[in-house]
Amino acid sequence: MAGVSLRHLHKSYGKNGPLVVKDVNLDIEDGEFMVFVGPSGCGKSTTLRMVAGLERVSQGEIYIGDELVNNVPPKKRDIAMVFQNYALYPNMSVFENMAFGLRLRKTEKHLIDTSVKQNARTLEIEHLLERKPRQLSGGQRQRVALGRAIVRHPKVFLMDEPLSNLDARLRVQMRTEIVELHRRLETTMIYVTHDQTEAMTMGTRICIMKDGVIQQVGAPEDVYMRP
Ligand code: ADP
Ligand code: ADP
């Protein structure tokens, strides 16, 4: 496991672009479920994508555990990321989708087999392993996306609005499942949402952003959100 530290983090897109993340300082503890919440365009995704290594840091430092990762490529970071649009490979089966990251890392075949099946069972998608993504419902696809992330046992989980494409009922159900998954995996979670209810019900701590800066950080009962 590992915590994540953001030190004087700044980001602007392009050479003369405005700062969309401004002097963000935050220590996310090992095993914590941290939710970034705030209106669209406030810099949540950009912050998360810098932690993932998908965007360059303009200024400041990001540590994963004790390691300064500013110049570490995404694949070398011990993280897994889940997006709102699932990003599954359409021509691969559920099994192949889940196994993909392990195959890339040359994991032994029987270990891949065991890990995929075990995690599929956890997510209750074991019966779907031979299907293609197009043969799945939205909720099932999101479970496969989660499955693909957890088979690698990353130290840090990053989720960017993973539930926003689901219908309301499923969204509420998946909230509980993700919280439960986090508890079971004992991993560090950084979760981005614009949904205040989601933030309040899921996070052990909440970081409220506005216009690229952190406005408040605290436990759900301690932060104030405008209704
Ligand atoms: P969300 O708000 O749900 O994160 P967006 O529609 O804002 O999604 O962004 C989708 C993609 O477009 C992201 O990869 C983001 O980095 C990129 N993007 C967002 N705003 C801009 C912009 N002004 N110029 C170029 N790319 C952008
Ligand atoms: P949020 O996740 O809170 O919706 P973002 O981090 O996606 O916010 O965006 C923060 C700001 O950066 C927005 O003004 C957005 O338009 C801009 N932005 C995001 N991605 C890009 C990009 N690839 N190029 C230029 N501007 C971008």
TrEMBL record:
Domain of life: Bacteria
Keyword Calcium among record annotations: no
Residues of the ABC transporter domain: 4-227
GO cellular component, one term: ATP-binding cassette (ABC) transporter complex, substrate-binding subunit-containing
Keywords from the named record: ATP-binding, Nucleotide-binding, Transport
GO terms, molecular function: ABC-type transporter activity; ATP binding; ATP hydrolysis activity
Biological processes annotated in GO: carbohydrate transport
Name used for this protein in its record: Sugar ABC transporter ATP-binding protein
Source organism of the structure: Paenibacillus flagellatus
Organismal lineage: Bacteria, Bacillati, Bacillota, Bacilli, Bacillales
